[in-house]
Each structure stands twice: as C-alpha cells, then as structure tokens.
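Ticket 4471: requesting a sanity check on a complex prediction with adenosine-5'-diphosphate. Repro inputs:
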Amino acid sequence: MLPAWAFALVRIAGLLAVAVVLGLLFDSIALWVALVLGGMLAAQYVNLFRLQRWIRHRADEEPPELRGVWGDLVGLISRIHRHKNLHKRRVTQLLREFRRLSAAMPDGVVVLSAAHEIVWFNRMAASLLGLRRKLDVGLPITNLVRQPGFVDYLRRSAAGQGVVVRARGDVFLLLVVIPAGAQYLMLVRDVTREARLEEMRKDFVANASHELRSPLTVIAGYLDQLADDPELGADWREPVADMGRQAARMREIVDDLLELSRLEAAAEEAPFRPVDMAGLLERLVREAAAATDAAPRFVLDLDPALLLQGNESELHSVAWNLVWNAVKYTPASGTITIRWRRGAGGGQLVVQDTGIGIAPEHLPRLTERFYRVDRARTRSKGGSGLGLAIVKHGLQRHGGRLEIASEEGRGSTFTAHFPARRLLARVPAVTRVS
Ligand code: ADP
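Returned structure tokens:
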C-alpha cells in the first residue's frame, strides 16, 4: 500500500492529467485545470472543517471518517488524546492515594515554599495548627506560628531536632523543618504528653533539691561545730572530717541541680544587659586562685572594650565552671590561658589548660549530667558532674554553644561561642572640653 502522502500526490497528478485531457478536448486547458484545482481546494476545506468540528467536540463524537493524510491526522490526534487521558487518570489516582496516605498519617505535614509560604498541608496539620485550607495557603508560616523560638529556628534553617512550641491551650507541638529541593517539608507532632513528663521531671528535681538543701545545711553546720569541738575524741576526728567533706559535696550537687533547674525553667532567652566580661573574668581568676592551695599559672588575654549582653550571674556561672575545671584538672606546674575576644562568628571565651586532657571518645558526652571521664579521679577532685551541663544550658540561653578540643596528657581547650548580636563595643569615655 502506498503511504498517504505519495497516494495524495498521485491523486493530484491524476486529477490534473484528467483536467489537461478534458482541456485539450474542449480547447480550454486553463479553465479545466482551474476547475479541478478549485474542486480539490473545496474538498480540503470540507475536511478541515470536519476535523476542526471534531477536535472541538472530541469528547462526544466519533472521529470523522477521513481518508489519506487527513485520516492519518485523525488517527494521530486520537492517539495523543488517549495518552493524555491515561496520564491524567494515573496522576489523579496518585494524587488521591497521596491524599489518603497523608490523611492517615499521625503527624501533620506542611509543604512550604522557598520563602516559607504555605503551599499545602494535610488534615492533621490543619487540626494541630488550626490552618484553614482556602484562607491560609500562600501565607507565610510565621504569620500563623509566631512563637519567637520557631521564627528563630526557621531563620537559622537548621532542621536538627526541631523546636517545641506551645500552641493553643496547653498543647505542645514539635516542629521540624526539612529542606526538600527548592521547598521545605514541615513535620508537626503533638508532644504534649512528653512535654508534661519533662515538666514533671524538672519540677521533681527542682523540688527535691530544694527540700534537701535545708536539712543538709543543718547537718553540715553541726558537723563543722563538731569538728571544731576540742572534746571530740581522737578516734572521731577523721570520720567527722570525712562526713563534713561528704556533706559539703552533697551541698555542691544540690546547688548545681538547683542552678540547672533554674536555667531550664527560664524558657525565654537571657536578657540583653551589658556585662563587662574582662572585669568578670579577672575577678573570677582571683577567686579561683584564692580557692586552691597550688594554683597553676594564669595567663589572661582579655579585650576590655568588648562587652557581652546577657545575664551576669549566668555568665559568671559559665565562666566559673570552665575555669574551675581547668584548675581541677591541671597540675600546679601547668598554665591556664583565658581569652575573651571578638572572633569570626561572634564573641569567644576560651579557657585553655595544659592539664590531663580528655580522650576523644568522651568529648561528645561531656555536657551530659553526671558524666565523668574517670569517676574515682574526679570524685577525689570534688565536683558534681553537672558543671559542663550548666555551661551548656547557660550558653544556650545566650544563643551560644560550647566547643571542646582536647588531647589526653597535653591539655584541653574549651571555647564558648556567643553570637555577634550579643556583643557590644564599649564606647570610650568622652571628655568634654568647654
Ligand atoms: P565535674 O564536676 O566532675 O568536673 P563537669 O561536668 O564540669 O563535672 O565535667 C565533666 C567531666 O569532664 C569531668 O568529670 C572531667 O572528667 C572532664 N573535664 C572537664 N573539664 C576538664 C578539663 N579542663 N580537663 C580535663 N578534663 C575535664
């Protein structure tokens, strides 16, 4: 069979030949050729018209019965149409399945655009965050979840472990924002139960520590009196002194627990009050040197013009724990260097010692409560095992973080990083000349 195009050409040629023959017969070739060409043109127009009408009402009508190139064209269009329909049905089915799955998910899911605008959300997200489908799509998520903790988390675009926010009433939600190509996927989970348990734990620790403090103070006081009593028998001197030391240790643990509880209870960020860090560190080094019989050598490198905005007593506690650890774990022949300066990303408080150092496997766990590298050794040095946990929490309240570098037997460097927004340059005193 001839292909459609060849057949069409042969037909045109045949018709023209007939026109020429007729023209020769009737002595007017031009007229007959014109008549034949006009007839062919009319036939094309009729086909074009039928095709156009069919395309327009394609869904309702059978395809027109056309032959040749026109027939091919109708077949092609029919095929494309069938493909498109199939594809559409498949996409619709996928979408329906995705909706069913996302509706069955126990967590809320919100798709955010690159500019953090709501693109789509499932039913659970709508109920947890109180989103309304028609009204809230296209709005920035921060218009609806306004908690500063979340806004800050989103700005830092740090997926990490997410952030817990308090929603309507007493509902706590964990929000995790995960970058997904040019968009973000936000997972929303109701963590009210976990948050309540965590609250109960904090309350329990705070209450228990508080309740233990007074009896301990009384016991320690009597033990002090007893130790000073000249009538105390020689056999009892050492046990009483030991009891006094243990009571003091328990006081230290209880005080540190209370301090940690206080830091944890203060959910908001620390205030922005200027603190003279250089002055604070100088005082603190004097206190540390006075509190030990054989203190290592201290080297201070402090920028007196650089102020830190925060809570002075919390910053004192952070610095004290770092400096006191350095004193505890550095021999008297060693050196402790303390720096306070502006670094690349913000303020840096560096406490560097030439002490015993820490093996690398312990470094990630050092800020856990009661984590000690060598229990027997650290117990003899005193300390609650809570110092670095206090440092971590104190820094978090100031938007900071702790970096630890250490080499066993050579020494350790603890760097507290503070964000640049917390720094303030001291304005030099201006002398007025009149
Ligand atoms: P502790 O009260 O026992 O010192 P911390 O939380 O302050 O508790 O420190 C946890 C552990 O980290 C310590 O027990 C100690 O083993 C180790 N550590 C802390 N600082 C230093 C340091 N400067 N040099 C060596 N080890 C240290």
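Notes from triage: The mean pLDDT is 89. Leaving this open until the requester confirms.
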